[in-house]
Amino acid sequence: MKNAPSSWIPKELSWLSFNERVLQEAQDKSVPVVERVRFLGIYSSNLDEYFKVKIADLKRRVVIDEENDNDSGAKEVLKQCLSKVKKLNDTFDNTYSMLLTELSSHNIFLYDEKQITEEQRVWVTDFFRRNVLKHISPVILNDSIDLVSFLKDKYAYLLVKMTRKGHKEGREKSQDRDGSNSVTYALIEIPTDKIPRFIQIPTFGNKKEKVLMILDNVIRIGLDLIFKGLFNYDEISAYSAKMNRDAEYDLSSQMDRSFVENMSQSLKQRLVSMPVRFAYDKEMPKEMVRYIVNKLCMQDFDSVMEGGRYHNFKDFTGFPNVGRDYIENTPLPELNSTDFDAAANAFEAISAHDILLYYPYHSFRYFTELLRQASYDPAVTAIKINIYRVASKSRVISSLIDAANNGKHVTVIVELKARFDEENNIKWASRLTDAGVKVLFGMPSLKIHSKLCLITRIEDGQPTRYAHIGTGNFNEKTAKIYTDFALFTKHPELTQEVAEVFTFIEFPYIHTKFDRLLVSPINARRKITDMIENEINNARSGFTGKILVKINNLVDKELIDELYKASQAGVQIDMIIRGMCSLRPGIPGLSENIRIISIVDRFLEHPRVMYFYNNGNPRLFISSADWMSRNLDTRIEVGTPILSPILKNRIMDILNIQFQDTMKARIIDSEQTNTYVKRGNRRKLRSQIAIYDYLAKNEEKKQEKRVARQTQE
Asked: Which of 169, 178, 461, 710 has the most CB atoms around its CB within 10 Å?
């Protein structure tokens, strides 16, 4: 069927509904107050990326429409998005004020330069002189300054206004409206890469109170130390501001330059790409706003947005807890894997049976330990791995280099187009190459997003493969905050096809067929569609049709149409979607058999899981791919069937726990109103905590069986 407007939600609007769910966490009084402040930072960081990517894309489409006298609908969607952002930002400001009050009830105060005592001001001034001043290099704004090139996307700034009253001659920059005052503007980059954004200042006698000051306000106190004696002024004031750039870039197709050189040049283009949002303190004088907007060459459809006193709220993700332990989340100890711990080494463990880990509940160390052992195991001959995003201090990279040093054949496919990690990945690629690792960059036309590792080991004189197939990156840091499945397997058919994926990446012109794995862009779309069609046919024949899906985003129109068709055929469809969802569920005659929830909690839900009832012979897959056109058609993604009945049941148990969530689940309805699932007379169930308890008991039972077996022996 063709998508009518009423059956489709623009992905850009749907994304804002997701970020609204993040903001709901900052408002949820059941969440410890420090964590709620950090959710404000997550919301802000998300919104920055939203403007750099999605709003920037919409604006490009608006420009194209205007140049071609066309109407793709982008202008109307852009208008709706900016209106929604304004409403959300108003909620954000109110939430921030509410959280400041709640922090004060815990004797934690976030003071500005006007709220501190004179004794504290002396301390802050001295702190500024000793620690901050050396990192301050103002830029004096004049006609020769290219502000577009100067401003950096990652930083917040203070725009400074210096006014010399009643002075008409020798004006340094511009005039006030009455023409009688000389005004100079300057720009200060807030050095959050050198100094923490939050400074704890002494309370001088009140031991109960904890006082924090944002670095911006520390700099405001030190303005005279920066400018006095170098500039003549009677008044000086500072206003916060930030700018977001278009994050897209053009990848040069010049044949005489390497892929890495092209990527490096393209990243430089991003550094000077045009602004898409300028956010500023609403107290900033109007003539100052006009001056800056003009210097930034912003157009009528660019986003010039007034806001509160502070910008770059993303730094609030690291808001420090200077109070009691209970005002932030109690850490959940990582679970040990009995399957790995019971074996002499990782290869013995995987040889016994397939192993499934679920991060961050299970420790990521089992994967890094597998690589560490492989790096020096004399039986290991080769290691192949995809790198998309890795930690800044990566044990994964270290083990791969160690393996190369030990004579193993190590092949690393580095995805240079991992958005916002491109520069880091170029550095990793250089370091790996220097260590003798074979580094591949795949194909410029296909981003490699699969999460694969393949280790070849000689056993009984024959090469034997061990594979990791997962839903998340090989990143020690994000493995502590993202939920992801990781399958470790020695299954010959699966590992053979994993090897063929690596061959396809290196030699894409060779025809490759996959029977077990779902591989984008080769067979994933067709196989998923076939499995949906199978459920439709079963339902129409009077049998049960059932589909369960857990993904991050659902915006592919073809698959949405298939789901609508399945709903109309009587297939029951239950979905968990964290982020964008362009499907409208619950519409009579279209999608009344589709139920969708979204869970936002302390961990970021990241796995992709697909379950098809298949007339009583269920098929279950985990995958790296969302249901988006890019993931199915223009990326290399891999999904694997879960063959072990035990592991199938474990994943289904986890999904069922999430579908029973009565605390953190929101209903995704046809209007995306983000209503919480009603508890009714059911008990409170917070699925992320319940899953931890479930997995802990599972490991405990396995350990008990292990001890009993050892006792019998």
From this structure: 710
